[in-house]
Each structure stands twice: as structure tokens, then as C-alpha cells.
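request received
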Amino acid sequence: MTASAVMFRSAPDVRRKRLIRYGLAVGLLLVGFLLHLQLDSALTLSDQWRIATGAAPDSFEEFQFYYAAMPRALLAVMVGAVMALVGSLLQQVTQNPLLSPMTLGASSGAWLALVCVSIWLPDLLADYRAWFAMGGALVSVTLVLLIAGRSGLGGLPVILAGMATHILMGAVATAVILLNPYSADSLFIWGAGDLTQTDWEWVRWLLPKLSVALVILLIAPRPLTLLRLGDAAASARGLSTGPVLAVLLLLSLWLVSSAITAVGVISFIGLIAPNIARNLGARTSLDELVFSLVLGALFLLFTDGLAVIISQWTPDMVPSGTTAALIGAPALIWFARSKLSSRDQTALQVPEGAARVRRGVWIGVPVLLTLLTLLHLAFAPAALSPFDLSALFQWPSDLVLSLRWPRIVTALCAGAGMAVAGLILQRLIRNPLASPDILGMSAGATFALVAFTVFVGGSIHEGGPFIAFAGSASVLAVLLLLGRKTRYAPGIMILVGISLSAVIEALVHFVLAKGSDQAYAIIGWLSGSTYRVSSGQALFLAAGTVLLFLFSLMASRALTLISAGDAIAQARGLNTQRSRFVLLVLVCGFCALVTAIMGPIAFVGLLAPHVATMLGARKVWPQLWLAPAVGMMLMLFSDWLGWALLYPKQMPAGTIAAILGGAYFIFLLTRRRLG
Amino acid sequence: MAVRAFFLTGLCWLTVLFSSSASAVTVTDSRGEHEFDTVPERVVSISWAMTEDVIGLGIQPVGVADIDGYNTWVVRPAIPDGASDVGKRDEPSIEQLAALKPDVIILSNGQEGLIDKLEQIAPVLFFDAYNKDHDNAKAAREIFLELGRLFDKEAMARQKLDAMDAHIASLSEQLKAHFGPDLPQVTGVRFASSSVVMVYGPNAMSQAALTEMGFGMAMDQESNQWGIVQKKMTELSTISKDGILLYFKPSPGVEKLFAAPLWKAMPVARANRVAGVESTWSYGGALSIGYLAQAMTDALLTIAPQ
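response:
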């Protein structure tokens, strides 16, 4: 469509516009580069020129200009350009405007690898850090691509696979950090993504690795142009897309891993630059690649400059990754919002299960739930070492019981709440991959609480439900605002989810990099723990969950009709617009409630409705009863495992649930591909 | 003789009797006053700084949080045998704590949220040891004395602090003999990466030790909660060539940094006035000021006087 539109316009007009576009962008880039150099330098321009053209530096200011300011500005241009180039390439190959190194989970793989190495093989970190980061990034991206498969690359599956891998790897890394405090501290600056340089070392390291970019610019445009015509047309002109894709992906992986290794986690550039490039009129493949590249350089130069300026005004250093995320997130939503129509309904086949719920399930599930509760109460892990079978099970004292029941109630309610939220969301947007943690609803509450702690101060545990509700409600407002036009398409929700979680991550890394103990409180809370929940909070959560559950039961007819399709629902006299709104409010209510009390819980909202379906709950009504029961079991088991596994140390239930759920999710996506 | 022995024993008994009846003690933590009928014997400490204080007072705690972590990062004073691990500092095991039947549980920063829960197990003392609104080093001394009062060892607490001050004074003499009566200005840092440093400021324990020894600060710094601020490496250039830069170990990759041209161009590096301090915990209790003073003195003495 775009190609034909270009052809019908007069060629000189197009060329003139392109010339203006490039002239402006390159001009801005040059000015930006020069301004960036002035940010941290007291030298006169003529002195700067003297140093830049090869005069040996003498005073410290001159050394600083040559060894800090110059490499930093250059690195910003290099990294920005390369991230954007790769983003553009990925988006063109897949025709998926949400694809980027970030959404493919490259950084989380590198992060996990480095965290593990710094704790278990610290001696190797200094010398082989680049290779471990690169290996981690390669593994995670390959994993995401394998999960998504060829057919999934164009749509939501690859984005969801990326999010799932990201959450899973992030959960593992957090668990490792929490169990080994301070050991990974040296990584936190890298995790926050910072361009501060003290030598030409990284520029020199990165430059040869980026030569691959030239290869991409040379060989990519032709196959990309052909790909736009579709696979069939491309192979008709003698291009077998498979190998070309593979080579291009491999090259971009190499570029991204190198850039991440050099500067750390700087998100959004690869995602946003190609979207802006298209928005500003880049049409042909080569045009898109090159213009994205220029814009990416410009974007990172600008956000990094901002980081430098803010750092001069605040006592703490602000890493480049933080400003990139804070500016990138809203910009991304703004530029990509119109690209995401509701076309993307790539459904996923939930594994086949029973056709209807057997009677045994209705009996077995409550029995199992009771047994799990008893296990949680009566198991005494202290008797594991030294092993003493007779003491392994004992009823807790009244004191311990009074301190233990809130966490059990919390686990049960959180599991049930997230399960119902996930169920509603999956039915609402007719995509079984939907889940409140991936779609940004929990992220809103999380973001509000983390931002409260970072900017207002005080403990994250004191934030309380009101701030969480405010966060969830603002996300809801944004979704409704954006969703009216797109008819609540999953794409826009995922966009908000991705953006918010990237901003949360940037904030958390910013706090981590500050090097205070506050960071550990925040990442502890982010892992979703039942530990601190008081009896009052637990009762509040229970009452809220029951209330919202009753509302959900009342909305079950609307849910049934909407999941059958808007046309059918409207024919039966349902106001679909209003029902969607009410159902979305319900989902946000669940998320805010659970997140405020216990912290963000990943995957349960995805997994529980699936298991219910596999057990035979195909219709809304039985699923509404079975899914929360499954969610309860999952959370209760996670809570118990996290408590008993390393007793007396404990791991948060949210982390265990994320690892269990993430593994299932990856299994599910792989199955879909194989099947 | 027998009469005298009898008399003495009686006197002893009387003392014990009086002291135990008088041992109903009131201590003040960051939340207010707390009354204890008897001197607590079974002590659990959840924060490392408090653990340091408790052990420093000669108390053998029955429970300590994250012993492995303490042994890795805090090291001194060593935790006596017999203390059981009660789990992580942010989420100590309720079951383990209840089983220990403590007389008092001591918490500090970051553990405010545990108070309500743990108070159901035993009386809880919470000390807001690190706070941007007070002098951390002064607060640490007060907490140490308060704990001394709690354990009926106030005299011992005072004596330990006095001994520490005397030790620091002797270190100061040693340093004045080395550098001359006008001591140079010193700033302590931790290298966070090849381009970023954590700079210790006025509210840091290490800076308190330096101040007590008579050193001024080589880099202007605002006061904040933990006394540490993250800065770009290049800002260390504000330390003059007469100043001294101390960096705390472990500092992996520091050789590479010191070989970089920009580093060599820093006034303080050009003057060769940089030294590494053996690994010492920076967020400890009152006695950690003494450990820090000793470790930094060892480092400072390796720097040639001008």
C-alpha cells in the first residue's frame, strides 16, 4: 500500500521532501553533537577544536574533553544509531511495529547472565564481562525467536514471548540478587544504562563490531522491499526469505549485544526511532533504515544530554537509561498508537483438555486446596536439617498461627484475584495470551508505588492501596482514551504494558545505581511477597476480592457474549462499549488491590484460566469458579515453596510464581509452534 | 575469716538483689520509651549494625539475621558461636524467631515494616540509625549507649566508646607525626564502575572517623541519609593535588582504571596521593568508626608526606 502511494506521487516532490527531512535531521544531529560536547566542558571552542584535531591534552579540562566528553558523545551517536537501525530492520522484516531489541528480551538475558557471573564467578567478570553479556543476550533473544516461531514474528506472539522471557529472567535475576545482597552491586550502573566514559576504550571496542551495520545497509534493502510484497511474491522473484531472514537476524543480534555490552540497558531507541521515521514520511526500505539510524542517534544524544544536565542539578547522577525510558515511553505510545489496529487477533491454541469439567475435578480441587493449606500450616522445615521425620509435621503454636494466617489468606486472594482478572481480560480481547501483568494494568499500580518511593521518599511498604489505585486508574484512563479509537485492541494495551514496565525498570535501576539499601526494599517488594501483610490488610484484601468476584459473576453473561464476538453480543442487545468499560474497570480493580497489598504478581493471571480450560471449563461460568481455584493453588504452593525451600531464608511467592508460570508460558508458546 | 566471707557473700547477694530489682530499665528508641522489667537475656538482632553493637557490648545474641552475609560484608566483630540464623534481614523467619523465645528483638533502618509483626513475638526496639536529619556517627554512639543501658552495661558501653576515642586519638597522633601538624584534606570513595564513583560525604561513618582524626573533607558534599553520593569519576578532579583520595576495597578493575590517561591527569593522581583501604563495612554501629579509622590510617600512612 505504501509503495503504491509513493509511486503515484510526483517523484521530484518526494525527493524534495526527503531532502528537507534528511537535511533537518542531519543538521540537528550535528548541532546536537556540538551542544552535547559543551555540556560538561569549560574549554573554549578553539581549544576544543585543537584537542579534537590531535593536539595532546595538557590541563585536566583538556584531558576531560578528550577522554570523557568526546567518547561519550560519539558513543551516544553510535549506540543510538545502531539500536535504531536494528529496530528498523526487525520491524521491516516482521512488519511488526512493536519489535525491537528491547521487546525481544535482549537486555534481560544479558542482565541475568551478568548477575549470575558476578555472584558465582566474580573473578571472571572483569575480563570476560562482554562475552557473558553477549552470550546472555544471544540466548534470550534466540529463546524468544524460537518460542514465537516464523509465524509468530509478525504479531503479538513474539511480543508476548519477549515479555514472558523478560519477566521470567528478571524474576530469576531478582531472586539471585535478593539472596546475595551487595555481590552484584557493581553491575547496577550498567543495569541502569549509562554512557559516562573515562577513556576511548569502549568506543574502540564497539566501533569494529558495528561495521556489520554497513553490511546490513548494503544487503538488506532489496530483500526487505521484496518482503513487503509478501512471502509468496518474494519467492516468486527468486528470494527465499528463510535464509535471508536468518542472516539478517543474526547480524542484528550481534549488533545489539555489542551495544548492550558497551553501555548497558538503554531501552526504547530501537522501538521508537523506526516508528517516528515512518511517521515523518520514510517510505522505502533503505530510507526507513537510514532515517531511523539518524533519528536514533539524535534521540540518544538528546536524552543523554538531558541526563547530563539533570545530573548537574541534582546531587545524584542520573543515568542515560533513565531519561531515555522516561521520554521514550510516552513518545512511543504517541507515535505508535495509530499503527495498532484491532487486526491483530492472532489467537493461540490453549492445549486441548477435557470437553467438560468432570465431577472428580469439582471434588478434587477443593480437597487439594485444603491439603495445600494444611501443608502450609503444619510443615516444619526446621526439621529438614538435621532430618527429623517425627518433627516434620506439627501444628503451629497459636502465636505462629496468628502470624501465619495473613500470608495464607493473601496468597489465596492474590491467586484468585489475578486469575479472575486474567480470565476477564482473555475473554475481553479474545486472546488467550492476554494477562494483566503483561498488559500494563498491574504495571500502573507498581509504577505509582515505585515512583512514590523514589521521588517522595519513604518506604515502599507505606505507599498503600490509594497510590496503587491511582496508578491503576491512570493506566485505565490512558487505555480508555487510546482504546476508544482502536476498540480496545490488544496491541495498544501491550504497548502501554511494555512502556510502563520499561519505565519501572529504569526507575528501579536508577535507585539501585544510587547504591543505597532502599533499592533492596524496592526489589524485594517488586518480587511480590506475602510476608509483611498484616491481618488487617489480609482481611481487606479478602473482602475486596470477594466483592470483585461477585461483580465478576454478575458480569458473566456480558463476558460470554463479548467473547462470542461483538456482532453476536450486539444482536443480543448488549451495549458492548459499556460492558467492555465495566469489565476493564473490574480488571483494574483486581490488579490495584492485589498489587497494593502484596506487590506485582506475574503469570498467574495467564496460567490459571488456561489450566481451568484444560480441566474442561470451556464456558465462562465454570471457568469463573475453576480459574480462581487454580490461581489459589498456584499462589499457595509458590508461597509455601518460597518459604520452605531455603528455610530460614525465604523467597517471595511472586518470584516462585513467576518462575513456575514463566516456564509454563514458554512451554505453551513452544507447543503452539510445534503443533 | 568465716564471718568475713559470710558477710561478703551477703553483700554480694544484696547487690544482686538490689540490682535486679533496680534493673527495671527504660530505654528510648526511635519510637519512644520502652520499659523492660528485667534485663533482656535472649537477644535477637535483625540488622547488621545492631548486631555489631550487641556483640560489641559482649552480649551473645541467640539469633542474628543473615549470618553468611554478615560474615562476608561486616566481618568484625565476629558473631559468637551459638547464635542461630533467623533468615534474611528484610523477612526474618517468624517461626524461627518464635522458637527462640527472645526477650527483645532489635531492628534498624529498612525494617520499620516488621515492627507490628515482630512485636507479637517479643518487645521490639527500632533505631533509625541512618537518617539525613541527624549526624549518623553521633546517633550511632547514642544507640550504643542506649543498648548499654538496656543490657545494664552502660559503664561498659561508655568505656568502649572512650577506648575507641583514645585509639582514634593515638591514630591521629601517628598521622600527625607522618604528615605534620596540618593534616591534608581527605575524601573516601568506592568505585562503582570504570566511570562512576560513590563518594562518602559528611554523614558517612568513614568521614566521621576522618573528622575525629583531624582531617577535613577534600570534596564538598551535601549530607544525606547514608552519607554516600554517586558521582561521575571526572568529578574527583575537584580534589586538589594537596588532597588525598582513599578508595575502599574490594575494587575490581582498579588497576585498569589507574592506567587510563584521564585518571593519570587527575590532580590527586598526578600527585600520587591515592590509597586503597582494606574492606571495611561502611554502615555499621558505633564501634565501626574505630575499625574505619584504623583501616584508613593504615592506608594513609602509605602516602608520602609533602
